[in-house]
Amino acid sequence: LTNPDGSIGETIYGQMTKFAAEVGAVNLGQGAPGTEPPDELIAATEEAMRAGFNQYAPGQGYPQLLEAVGAQRGRDFGQHVDPDEVLYTAGATEGLTAAILALLPPGGSLVAFEPFYDSYPAAIAAAGGTLHTVPILPDGRGDFAPDWETFDRVIAEVDPAIILVNTPHNPTGFIFSAADLARIGRAAEAVDAWVLSDEVYEQLVLTDLGHVPPAVAIEDSARVVTVSSAGKSWNTTGWKIGWVIASPEVRQAIQTVKQFLSFTAGGPMQIGMADMLDGDSQFVAENRASLRARAEVLVPACRSVPGAEVSTPRAGYFTVVDFSALTDRDAFELNELLAREFSLVGIPVPALCRQGSPAYEAYRSSIRYSFCKSVADVDKGAQLFNALG
Ligand code: PMP
Ligand code: GLN
Fold first, then answer.
1. What is the DSSP letter of 44?
2. Domains of the chain: residue spans and CATH
3. What cofactor does this chain's UniProt record say it requires (predicted)?
């Protein structure tokens, strides 16, 4: 949960962004890109605004976007998706919340991997359900692994209505393999649970490992609900163009909830983004290469700090640095100290865990740093780490 005392207050991302500005530190916290979307996307969106797409869009989203999302999933992942199975949402955040509100009964259980994106516990609380977690832990070689023994035990114990998987995973960059996902699918089938899949980093795999959507790896794909968004791939986190993919009946149930959250949003951006998802743009490939280059600046700089354990980001925006060999301080104290003395702010990883859980303890002194920031900020951050070293 967001606050160390377990309450839900302002998100850790909002808090850390303010804190960095207050102390004048380099902000490698919030995963908000420091680079811009492509001109062609801005032009297509402007054209949509001038063409009159300025009022309420249809509740399901504009047909152009629903079709484009289906085509993109087919092209990139071999997932067959009909437009009838797609719902526009105001970012992945709204898609996740609407899906949880629609599919988690009051008193029901949801199992998620930990650390987790901070909107999950808030949505589960709003649904009147309970969150149970399975840690994804450092393997000691710069990578991570889910604790499968705990997974099997927790699923058997809590009989969840939903298993939530985030692949590629924030903050570790861990990519679930097809075999991992098939295992999750079998577990879901055994207890008749939905698999809710958060794939916002689907396009940002930085290594040769491919992203496999759970809806492709899991045999009974009708139980999979996919959530993704354009924000991370297209540097448009402020536009909130996201989507849910589910069977028509489940899509309709989620849409029924969604209509009373935002009703609809982002009309002209839906049209602009639909234009980009046709596969002609090179932008996402360039963005991936640029992120890889920024990671290659930041990660070695973090590794220059003797004793710091630095993760190799396989996907996404982040590297996780474990300072526990260097200090007894927890990540909250350490982040504050590094901000005040070295002008550097990240996100304490325990803020993405449940207080006192095995993951919370494992990441007690770990801080997440974002390399999606501007080249100048990533360079500044790297210089500060080199100076620390
Ligand atoms: N899930 C994860 C794992 C995230 O890191 C984020 C942050 N962007 C989201 C969901 C929310 O995505 P959106 O901005 O599209 O709401
Ligand atoms: N998803 C982004 C991150 O993990 C932040 C989103 C937010 O600020 N709510 O940093």
1. H
2. 12-36+283-388 (3.90.1150.10), 39-276 (3.40.640.10)
3. pyridoxal 5'-phosphate
* 163-199 confidence digits (pLDDT tens): 999 999 999 999 999 999 999 999 999 999 999 999 9
Residue of 242, 250, 199 lying closest to 223 (CA atoms): 250
Q: Ligand 2 centroid to 291 CA: how many Å?
A: 17
Q: Which atom of ligand 1 is nearest to the CA of 316?
A: 5
Report the relative pairing of strands 162-166 and 144-146 from DSSP bridges.
Answer: unpaired
How many angstroms separate the alpha carbon of residue 51 from the centre of ligand 2?
32
Name the pairing type of β-strands 241-245 and 309-310: unpaired
Cis upstream peptide for 214 (omega within 30°): no
Q: Rounded to two decimals, what is the model's pTM?
A: 0.97
Residue 4 has pLDDT above 70, yes or no: no
Q: With a cut of 60, say whether residue 155 has pLDDT above it.
A: yes
DSSP count for the chain of H helices, then E strands: 14, 14
* One-character DSSP codes across 284-302: HHHHHHHHHHHHHHHHHHH
ipTM of the modeled complex: 0.98
Which ligand is the nearest neighbour of the Cα of 173? Answer: 1
C-beta separation of 206 from 313 below 8 A:
yes
Q: Rounded distance, CA 67 to CA 82, Å? A: 7
